Amino acid sequence: MHAESATIVQILWFFGISACIKLILIPSYHSTDFEVHRHWLALTHSLPLTRWYVDETSPWTLDYPPFFAYYEYFLSLFAQFIDPQIVDIYRGLNYKSNTVLYFQRITVIVSDLCLLLGLYRLTKNLEPRKRILSWVLVVWSPGLIMVDHMHFQYNGFLLGLLLLSVSYLQEGRDVMGGFVFAVLLCFKHLFAVAAPVYFVYLMRHYCWKGFFVGFRRLSALGAVVVVVFAAAYGPFLYHGQIQQVIRRMFPFGRGLCHAYWAPNFWVFYMMLDKCLSIIFRKLGFNIQAPIASFTGGLVGDSSPFAVLPQVTPLTTFIMVLLALSPCLFKAWKNPQPRFVARWIAYAYTCGFFFGWHVHEKASLHFVIPLAIIASQSLEDARHYFLLSIASYYSLFPLLHEAQEYPIKVLLLLLHTILMWYSFSAQFMTKERDSATKGSEQYGSKGRSSGNVERARVFGWVGKCYLVGLLGIEIWGQFLHPYFVGDKLPFVPLLLTSTFCALEIMYSWIWQLRWIITST
What we know:
Elements: H1 2-24, H2 32-46, H3 66-82, H4 98-111, H5 113-123, H6 128-139, H7 142-152, H8 155-170, H9 174-185, H10 195-207, H11 211-238, H12 242-249, H13 265-282, H14 313-333, H15 340-354, H16 364-373, H17 378-393, H18 405-442, H19 445-449, H20 460-483, H21 491-517
Helix pairs in contact: 1-6, 2-3, 5-6, 5-8, 6-16, 6-18, 8-9, 9-10, 9-11, 10-14, 14-15, 15-16, 15-21, 16-17, 17-18, 17-21, 20-21
């Protein structure tokens, strides 16, 4: 009990330090997502439930699952005492005041306690050094600070539910793990990319126990999921609005890519189409140049490709499922709880890399789970080191105002330094321990001491990649405005997305290879 209390106090210190940084950043830039969530507070507070998914008072209509709408309603109960205009759906449109700014910022910080709970349960049985390393990578994640506490969202809260679910699965409490994941899906449906992994794993690990036992367990698990979804969607089904809810949640008309290019497979696809169209036009073919809506910063239907086949939501769905299939096979063949976090992280990597209308912020879905895995081996650390830097760097375009530039650069630099120091210390200590044991066994002190050296977190390829990122940043921030001016404004974003996509692609291949070769 004393050790457990000490661990809780330690992780609360980590949370307290991060909370202080987030409080300092309250006046910083926030995107339109800030007004989106403020409007949802007003919408759920001012209107009856039957109008939540049909109201169009604001362009920012409710498009999250019902549990998140209930959560917004819960927060609105406190907001009305802070400032009644926050929850006034008609007078509060585009409402900007210090009260709404501080209230919404603080709700995100408090909601991060869910992330803390999930992280604590997932790491409480690790050795102290690995546990603290995981806290450094997650609690002090610059991606979560940039996306949630500056740009504004509630990813930390939702990722806390994911980590909580994984912690139950790793403990062998499959029903509880499935229950929490079902709750998560009713908060944000985009986490459903990992649903096939959960389904296969729970069927094989929990339900595949003979006919009668298996049927009883399958019924129990199914009942839990049905109860969760009934609690979320039941009221809307009762009022005949389930189709409207689904239509809001899945707006496939938004197009293949988001306003900012997520660094995934479709960046290469679009670039190839653009290059081929230019080449064919120079060769005399009558090829229509694709409209540059991919880079215009608009959320809408993507322009048709000029040369390559058109991409539909069904195409991306099939590609994600095919990429997932080796993982599903492994989960069925050898359903080990200790592999669950890797499988789930891989599922979200597949969804990010091949999915439809992927937001660049979705990289947090696999970067945060992989942070827990990063301390397991030097290879995992090397993989995570470059992946996290590339993923977090790809978020830079979200904070596009000049006053936030030093902040995001400083956050990423501090993260990189902390990672390098922590990984080096973690694996250097292990080499020292193994070398000491070897010297004691063979009596070769002089020879063993030569083997004790700082662990190399990355080699020459990683160094070249980091230099490339630095070059892209220097070009986009300083040289492009100087030499090109206002022409070709999409080029810095294109370079950022393409270069970061190279690392995301490598990560996908690396994880796939690990899953296929793991025993």
